[in-house]
Design a protein that fits this description.
- This protein is an alpha+beta fold and about 950 residues long.
- The chain folds into six domains: about 15-125, 2Fe-2S iron-sulphur cluster binding domain, sarcosine oxidase, alpha subunit, N-terminal domain (Ubiquitin-like (UB roll)), CATH 3.10.20.440; about 160-280 and about 410-485, FAD/NAD(P)-binding domain (3-Layer(bba) Sandwich); about 285-405, FAD/NAD(P)-binding domain (3-Layer(bba) Sandwich); about 505-565; about 590-865, Gyrase A, domain 2, CATH 3.30.1360; about 865-970, Aminomethyltransferase beta-barrel domains (Elongation Factor Tu (Ef-tu), domain 3, Beta Barrel), CATH 2.40.30.
- About 20% of the residues lie in helices and about 25% in strands.
- The protein contains 23 helices and 48 strands.
- The strands form twelve sheets. Strands 8, 9, 10, 11, 12, 13, 14 and 27 form an eight-stranded mixed beta sheet that branches. It has a six-stranded mixed beta sheet with strand order 39-40-41-38-32-42.
- Helix 4 (about 175-185) links the parallel strand 9 (about 165-170) and strand 10.
- Helix 4 runs parallel beside helix 5, helix 10 (about 450-465) runs antiparallel to helix 11 and helix 12 (about 515-525) crosses helix 14.
- It is elongated, with a radius of gyration of 37 Å.
């Protein structure tokens, strides 16, 4: 299709062709096209088939107000091609068809409307009861639009953004731009959201004169340039508002272009005030076949020509109820469209200058007439128009019927913001009469169509929004109100809804194939309120929400009930206002994790990383996820683990020991010189929340470690539990400034002896001691003898900035001794063989100190009772609690999953950790079971879903499984 050239309003680049695939054939559109306009340019007129009746559907609007042009794009169904930018090599397909959109084998359903009256799905197919299972399968296969491929891998980048602002302006038309400029000139931060790729709104494509005397499209570009240049305004184009919530929280999503770093982006804006300048959409005229391909809104036809350079047809008839329709007829005629006739459902109130223009061009004008029926199939080949009472009719041959009953405000955002509306007899609009604090409507949604009035309304709203943020704008607001009052106000609007026809094929909702006849049927069955009729007929519940039927439904109900329009209320609007992919809500999977100081070194050494709380840790160091080689090397040689994620703290001051006594169950006064003490923290229920080691470095000066997961909350935990004491102490979190290397294995001492001159013999540095020394390369180290993995082990605390040097030095020294890094999973197996617990793995919210067999840590008689002591005393007498036990599986060919349940006639416990142990030669693990089942030798039944009901059996076994006397870690 040849495009109109050299139009100053064009938004496409005629020199940049973009290929795309439609039904296996390659076509070309232009840069700036939407998918729908690119298809239209290539001769496509039937885009899809409707939900129930499989009626052909074509381009009707350009803002995605209905499902007419929903198609499958790159494997994703229900994509709104009207609002989807054309990109290289997109693959576009039809949906909801058997065959093709032009020849749909399901088209016979169009003749079956007689057996699908309003609410038929509530009454049919469920009697007799035995028929329902079959009917349900048929209905489920037929229901819905589009088919989702379960194997589809969604490509692209889905980002998220959470900006704050003073003023958020929804709508980038003339009113929105003026509001943004006024608010920004007060020194406030402004965010402007515009659903189209460019700002301009109703001015963008029109050549009529503005209040300043220049063409409206020039004025739009001038305002847009000022907005883009203003340092206080941030513009989000291609961004649709999705929802609105308490305290002016606005959510939206943005479509990316080839130059953006994202395909779609979720945006959540917290604003102090909001301007809603969303303008108007055209209200559909209801007549027979009013959704036939070839029937189009006036703005759609006008924008196709002026924005995309596409004449919407060859011969056209207009049936409109607003001056913009008359303006479009004149302009399109001048661009080459043959206009047969213009019918205006208004008998008066139209702009005489526009009517004079029709006469000058010898275009027949029919005031008080409407389109009665679109003729032809599958696309329009003619139209029958008639007087409003239907007494006189005329037919015209045409391939384009431009139809609209009038305008209606886009009030969806205001509805979400919980504004209250009343029907206005003058404009025929539902106007906001009560907006929440900080919300300011502006522009055409007040019924204003004069260009100067639209801008003045926007300036007033911008000043009011600014004043709500604090600046004194009283004088400016007063002047802006005077300016608005001195300009043309809201215009008289048309209230005509439908042509004088039966309504059998007059569709009030295109998405759900709801006709005027269905509305009559609902009324006849007692559903006499628009909100109930909406649910009973499903009008307005489809993908377009209330875009098409939202205004017409209450008007139609009032007309059929012969009730005054003044009592009307619009139906409820709910988020999301525009469909959003779940991937967009999820956003990019940002790795919001902390990295240890030697992360890059572990990457080079083949580490396979997993998230562990706020950290990213090396879980494996080989493709063998059973970590047999890593475990074996630690047991026989020497391994290194990066344990820098441990919480590392210093507490000092006169009352430091008292604070430790309060939060730890152990007696901190018993810490000997150079010794370390293992202890645990409990909550008020006696449940274990953390464990670690404590050591004293000086008078009233202690260090302690915590688990990785508790490092961020430990300081506040101590403060909370000493808040009523007048104790003098200070807690410092040194976690990020300290790295930790766990050097473990029977050859660990040999490695350490090569890197330091300190005496690290067993006599000088025994188990459960700590000491400070320097490595030969000058790195200071605080070392501790611990045995978490059951071998000779040193925990080396090093300043983070020295971690890389220390790790490399240890690697060099241990090269001939078989040193290798090991990961968290190998540590998991090693400590399990030793019977050492990991909180959260062998415990849960109810697990107390006694359940874990850690009661020996509790110093019952110390001066300061620890948190949880009272609960622990009561728990000692409780015989029904879970108990930590060791288990050995009867079979070695299957390793159950962590967390699988243990059953008898009910669930009696669950597995904490279970693995195959090469050292033990069996599948072993730790489990929490009810005390009656915790006796050594008890046989336990394990249930797993994947075993299809077959139980696996284990026997309660003493712990530790490996080196029960602890000789190896004390060697």
């Amino acid at each position: 299709m040849k495009r109109l050239a050299n139009l100053p309003t064009l938004r496409v680049n005629p020199h940049s062709a973009i290929p795309f695939v439609y039904k296996k054939d390659t076509f070309f559109g232009l840069e700036g096209d939407s998918l729908a306009t690119a298809l239209f340019a290539n001769g496509v007129r039937i885009y899809a088939r409707s939900l129930k009746y499989h009626r052909p559907r074509g381009l009707y609007s350009l803002d995605g107000e209905c499902s007419n042009t929903m198609m499958e794009v790159d494997g994703i169904p229900n994509v709104r091609t009207e609002t989807t930018l054309l990109k290289d090599n997109q693959r576009v397909g039809e949906q909801n068809v058997k065959g093709s959109a032009e020849r749909d084998l399901m088209g016979f359903m169009d003749r079956m409307d007689w057996c699908m009256p309003a609410g038929f799905y509530y009454k049919c197919m469920h009697k007799p009861a035995r028929a329902w299972p079959l009917a349900m399968k048929v209905v489920r296969r037929a229901a819905g639009l589009g088919r989702l491929d379960p194997d589809l891998e969604l490509t692209g980048t889905y980002d998220e953004l959470y900006p704050g602002t003073d003023v958020c302006v929804v709508g980038g038309g003339p009113a929105g731009m003026c509001a943004a400029l006024e608010a920004a000139d007060q020194g406030l931060r402004v965010i402007l959201l515009e659903a189209r790729p460019w700002m301009g709104g109703v001015f963008d494509y029109r050549t009529a004169a503005s209040a300043q005397g220049q063409p409206l499209h020039w004025r739009a570009r001038d305002l847009a340039a000022r907005v883009n240049e203003h340092e206080n305004i941030r513009v989000f184009p291609r961004t649709s508002m999705v929802g609105a919530y308490t305290d002016n929280l606005i959510t939206a999503f943005q479509q990316g272009t080839s130059t953006d770093t994202f395909d779609q982006r979720y945006i959540e804006i917290r604003a102090r005030s909001v301007v809603v300048a969303t303008g108007c959409r055209e209200r559909p005229l209801l007549f027979e076949n009013n959704e036939r391909p070839g029937v189009m809104q006036a703005a759609c036809a006008h924008r196709l020509a002026r924005t995309y350079g596409l004449l919407p047809g060859k011969q056209a008839v207009f049936s409109v109820g607003h001056d913009l329709g008359l303006e479009a007829a004149l302009d399109l005629f001048d661009l080459g469209l043959k206009v047969q006739a213009v019918a205006d459902c208004r008998e008066e109130g139209y702009d005489e200058r526009l009517v004079q223009g029709l006469h000058e061009r010898k275009i027949s004008f029919y005031p008080g007439w409407v389109a009665r029926e679109a003729l032809g199939r599958p696309t329009v080949t003619g139209v029958c128009i008639s007087t409003l009472d239907g007494t006189v009719t005329r037919e015209f041959a045409c391939d384009l019927l431009v139809a609209a009953a009038g305008l209606t405000p886009v009030m969806d955002p205001l509805s979400l913001i919980r504004s209250r509306f009343e029907f206005d007899q003058h404009t025929g609009y539902f106007l906001p009469v009560d907006c929440p604090e900080g919300i300011f409507p502006a522009g055409r949604l007040w019924g204003i169509n004069d260009s100067g009035s639209i801008e003045a309304s926007g300036r007033l709203a911008g000043l009011q929004a600014a004043a709500a943020c604090g600046p004194d704008c009283r004088q400016a607001i007063s002047a802006a109100k005077q300016a608005v009052n001195g300009l043309p106000g809201p215009e008289h609007g048309s209230k005509v809804v439908n042509a004088p026809v039966s309504g059998r094929k007059s569709f009030i909702c295109f998405d759900e194939d709801v006709s005027v006849k269905n509305i009559k049927q609902a009324l006849a069955q007692g559903f006499d309120v628009p909100e109930l009729i909406k649910r009973f007929t499903s009008a307005g519940t489809g993908p377009g929400q209330g875009g098409i039927p939202g205004h017409n439904l209450p008007l139609m109900v009032a007309k059929l009930k012969a009730e005054p329009f003044g009592d009307l209320k619009p139906t409820t609007v709910r988020p999301p206002l525009a469909p959003v992919l779940m991937a967009t809500y999820a956003g990019t999977t940002h790795e919001m994790t902390k990295l240890t100081p030697i992360h890059d070194i572990q990457v080079r050494e083949g580490g396979i990383f997993r998230r562990a709380g706020v950290w990213k840790r090396a879980r494996y160091f080989s493709p063998d996820l059973d970590v047999g080689p890593e475990v074996e090397n630690v047991r026989n040689n020497v391994g290194m683990l990066d344990a820098s994620t441990l919480g590392n703290f210093r507490i000092h001051g006169p009352d430091a020991q008292k604070a430790l006594q309060r939060v730890y169950v152990g007696d901190m006064s018993k810490i000997g010189p150079g010794r370390i003490k293992y202890s645990a923290m409990c909550n008020h229920d006696g449940c274990v929340i953390d464990d670690g080691v404590v050591w004293q470095v000086g008078e009233n000066d202690y260090m302690f470690t915590t688990s990785s997961g508790r490092a961020g909350s430990t300081v506040e935990w101590i403060r909370y539990h000493t808040r009523y004491e007048d104790w003098d102490f200070h807690v410092v979190n040194l976690t990020d400034g300290t790295g930790v290397i766990n050097l473990a294995g029977p050859k660990a001492r040999e490695v350490l002896e090569q890197v330091t001159e300190a005496d690290v013999s067993n006599q000088a540095f025994s188990f459960a001691q700590w000491m400070d020394f320097d490595l030969r390369i000058g790195v200071p180290v605080r070392a501790m003898r611990l045995g978490f993995v059951g071998e000779l082990s040193y925990e080396l605390h090093v300043p983070s900035s020295y971690m890389a040097a220390a790790w490399e030095e240890l690697s060099r020294a241990g090269r001939n001794l078989g040193i290798r890094p090991y990961g968290v999973e190998a540590q998991n197996v090693l400590r399990m063989e030793k019977g050492h617990v990991i909180l959260g793995q062998e415990s849960e919210q109810r697990t107390n100190l006694l359940d874990l067999n850690l009661g020996f840590l509790w110093a019952r008689n110390k001066d300061i009772a620890p948190v949880g002591a009272d609960a622990l005393k009561q728990a000692e007498a409780d015989q029904n609690r879970l108990k930590l036990v060791g288990v050995t599986m009867e079979k070695t060919d299957h390793v159950p999953g962590d967390g699988c349940v243990i059953v008898d006639d009910r669930v009696i416990g669950y597995i904490g950790t279970i693995r195959h142990s090469a050292a033990v030669g069996a599948v072993i693990g730790m489990a929490l079971v009810e005390k009656n089942y915790a006796r050594e030798g008890s046989r336990l039944a394990l249930y797993e879903d994947e075993c299809k009901g077959e139980l696996q059996y284990a026997t309660v076994t003493p712990m530790p499984f490996y080196d029960p006397k602890g000789e190896r870690m004390r060697m």
